[in-house]
Amino acid sequence: MESYVYLVLAAMEVGSDGRLSIEEDFADPRLLQPGSGVYVDVEGRDQRWQSRSALGLRLTIPGPLVAGSMEFEEPAERADFYVLRYGIGWQLADGRIEPFTVSVLVDSAELEQQTSAFRLGLWRSLGAAGALLVIAQVVFLVLVFRPLGRVAQDVAEVESGRAERLGGNYPRELEPLVRNVNRLLDTEQSNQQRIRNALDSLAHSLKTPLAVIQAGLPLHAGAAESSMQNAVDEMKRLIATRLERAGSSARRSLPEPVPVAPQLQRVLDSLRKVHSQGMIKATAIIEDDLAFYGERRDLLELMGNLLDNAFKYGQGQVRVAGGTLGPGRVRPGLWLTFEDDGPGIDERHWDRLLQRGTRGDERVEGHGLGLAIVLELVSAYGGTVDIGHSELGGALIRVKFPPG
Q: What is the pTM of this model?
């Protein structure tokens, strides 16, 4: 608005008689266009000039101002204009000072339109800048976390047993982590192999002295031959059992999944041949994709011991069922139940049978060392063993392996 004051002052002339004249050749065409929203009024002592844009309008303007003063008014109830008034004194040739007041009026709608346009442009600019920042942030996060996602995927492959170590190219920052994880996995595998080799060596070392003792019993034992032979047999059995238990402690932390159904079928086929005279009917209700995340020999030993008891003491029926625990997990667990229609197990002996460290020969007849081995094996995986009554009328053994 102040610029319009200077624009009019530049085109303004005052004659020697004090008459005002303005050359209406303005650079801004809005002063020449009626109703444009910008209006200029110049008021002298007894004369007044208004821009062509004010044609047909009755502008209400306060009185004159003293030379050198300036006033600004915002829209009021009586007028919807912003008003800037500037007082000047024009010195004539004879030294007289002629007072004038230049007033510039701007329609408030004009300013609101400009303000709305500015706000709209500002919000568009801020929105575009915000969208660009979000896109840049997303791209940055994707680029940063993509290697971590690849590492997590490879770790899941190792955890599920589908891979033995982390492979692939990783950023320099992740190489120490990958290297140390692979070193840990290699060390574990090496330690397992070393333990197995040591156990095998121990077994072979003990077999020879026992064989020599057994061969010399008929020659030197005399009347004690029978009792000494029993002692040697017991030593062989204890050595085999303890070596088997020690070997089970050398299992891998993240073994590959073992399908349960084929292993169960393998055990059932073997037991049907051994107990063919018993005419036992065995039923298996197992999920097709049920998997055991552990050593294959541990699963075979568990099912072999429990099914052997079921076949041995069942009177015609054996049932095995199994399902998944924690579906959707990377390494889900599983449950297995073994039932028979035999005499069952007295409830008074359940707690005693499931106590760790109890000797097998102190257990109830028919559920001795085999159940002890199962309990020790399942406990090594963090699982549980429960005893109950079967719907078939006999014993029920329930085994649970928790998710990894």
A: 0.48
